Amino acid sequence: MPKVGMPAIRKPQLIDATIEAINAVGLQKASVVMISGYAGVSPAIINHYFGGKDGLLEETMRSILRQLSQAVQQRLNSCDKDDVIERIIAIVGGNFDSQQIDSKIVKTWLAFWSMAMHQPALFRLQRVNEKRLLSHLLLELKRILPADKAKFVALSIAALIDGIWLRGAFSPNGIDRDLAQRIIMDYVEKQVPPQTLDIHQQRQLLKKN
Amino acid sequence: MPKVGMPAIRKPQLIDATIEAINAVGLQKASVVMISGYAGVSPAIINHYFGGKDGLLEETMRSILRQLSQAVQQRLNSCDKDDVIERIIAIVGGNFDSQQIDSKIVKTWLAFWSMAMHQPALFRLQRVNEKRLLSHLLLELKRILPADKAKFVALSIAALIDGIWLRGAFSPNGIDRDLAQRIIMDYVEKQVPPQTLDIHQQRQLLKKN
Amino acid sequence: MPKVGMPAIRKPQLIDATIEAINAVGLQKASVVMISGYAGVSPAIINHYFGGKDGLLEETMRSILRQLSQAVQQRLNSCDKDDVIERIIAIVGGNFDSQQIDSKIVKTWLAFWSMAMHQPALFRLQRVNEKRLLSHLLLELKRILPADKAKFVALSIAALIDGIWLRGAFSPNGIDRDLAQRIIMDYVEKQVPPQTLDIHQQRQLLKKN
Amino acid sequence: MPKVGMPAIRKPQLIDATIEAINAVGLQKASVVMISGYAGVSPAIINHYFGGKDGLLEETMRSILRQLSQAVQQRLNSCDKDDVIERIIAIVGGNFDSQQIDSKIVKTWLAFWSMAMHQPALFRLQRVNEKRLLSHLLLELKRILPADKAKFVALSIAALIDGIWLRGAFSPNGIDRDLAQRIIMDYVEKQVPPQTLDIHQQRQLLKKN
DNA sequence: GATGAATGAGCCTTCATTCAT
DNA sequence: AATGAATGAAGGCTCATTCAT
User: Fold this and answer.
1) Within a domain: residue C136?
2) Which has the closest alpha carbon to C21: C2, C3, C46?
3) Domain-embedded: residue D136
């Protein structure tokens, strides 16, 4: 089986296996033997490609963060550059992307938050992630609100996103994306001056409530 | 010389030591040797009193949940039974009680969330906790809002509480209780009919913005 | 089996087992499982008492060095304080003590020399050991020879001791203590002024040749 | 394109890399990956050329022994066939050849002694080496001393060579070739009948003391 | 001839737990 | 009630070696 370009195949394969293992038994019990078992390869290969278990976990978190970032970016790219409300919806939607609210990923997130509290490398990743969400929101809100108010609203929306996400993690039905959008849009509607919303959006928002 | 009431001494002592250990190195590395070291006793005693490490961890979570519940209940008890807004402030305040936003407890919470995903006993505890917050809020909101709207707002407030709490966990400055109250009260103000607020509260809310 | 004072029993027991294992298969293949097997205990106990394999190896070397030092000291203690020749014989004798020329110890010495080249802690032990031999010899020789000559002779005797010891390590018959004494005493005789030797010693030395 | 004479290139290259690795981290930690890294080739090639790590180590020892033998032989070849003292100086000189007292080679020697105790193939090499030194010395000494005395002196000189060499290995200043020659020549001078030495040599020996 | 890829055996170490005292 | 002592199972990791290319 020795072929070139194996790293490009093995790395995602092992990251998927890591998420699978965390999903199955939790981070504490996700041993390298189990992870490599899910990937159908030898445990030694984890060291070969990631320098150890820690490296694999960090790469796994990076991978999830990358996907989150892409989910947001893709939605933003297909938005009107000047439609603030549409763009906020896009940001929220990206954070509740199908992949991100999948039970496997949710469990992995929680595991990483726990680890991040004690591993500077992971903590930094988490911080960057938080700041990115905030700056995305702020960028839009500043166009329709004064600076301090924009910051206040951005913080609130970010909190709503994380809070709904977190509570959904412990709900038997999982995370409810539509409810999330309704709650957040309702909040936005009440914070922005009415004229900001065009007729179409006003109707949409009314419908959601 | 068998001492009476030893359990009442040892149990809190070991629970504190557990939180201390999780604070210091994280749940993954908090071994029973380390925990018993913090408590200044022998590791064997953990089995004696809690039947094993899992038992200790569950009791530790129970202890934190109990304190959270008490923090809310105490504030509610010193409120006017009919002042809905004051009572919501009390509920929010309890969730941001000094103890609960202490870094040690925050780390422990995150650790438990991670574990709860894979341990039914802990998962149940977490569910009960979530439902209690929601029912506390709902109980009040139903008195000033129609049922479905009350539920919607209760969910939102709960999400804001958890979201602000969670984001604060990763902030270098820790969790900001005042900001939390401001954000949530601003939200409440915009959701409830104006006449619900008495003159005093209206002034307070205006000040906060 | 839990009794107090176990460390005093376990430590020598494990050190003996280490020497036994090195004797049997060499340092490279002397795993903690094998060593603990020789001692009839669990591998985990090595960490418990020595903090790891390295700690055990260092303690083992210390133990052998201590025994060498004692072998020399005991012989010196039963010597006339002023009989230089007798005291040199004692020093040489201690270095060729039955225990030190035992095949097991010889193999362990060689293993340690090899390790000492790359482990500062062991290197230091070896240095101290070398210097002690030299200073023992020097102390005596200075009483019958000028300082620079004394140093020259001390170095030579030390080299003869080590050289004979080393070559004996690779001899099928092992190390020959008597030959060592004969070679070294012959050397001493030719380096010290005749009048230093009393009649008795002169006869002895003649006999040896 | 099969290249001819590759073995002749690769083998010394890998042997040098082995010595380099032993010098850097010691035999225990000198893995085939590290060795092949020093040589700038793939680890698999070690198996190709030496049949495994053991084969490489044995060849490395053989190489060092060969160089030692050559260092002695070259010096002997440029000696007067009948000048016993000069030839002994040559033998000693060869054993303290620049290459042999280089730190890298010294570490490798010690590593091999340790291994030789448990690997018959290496033990045999070491024995041959010892015997060769002894027979070289004996061959010369028999021409000026009676057989038993010659053997006695040969053993002593061999011991001095090895002893000085060994002690130098642990000295921060390394092995002192001149001191070695002085000590050994002083010894020889006192063991051989005065008339053996010609005027020139007598002067040299006097100077050395 | 040479290599990138992969492996399985084995190593050191950690740890929750048990047990006699 | 409490502990010092000990353990077995498991964990992460290293490494010499193999193999298809």
Assistant:
1) yes
2) C46
3) yes
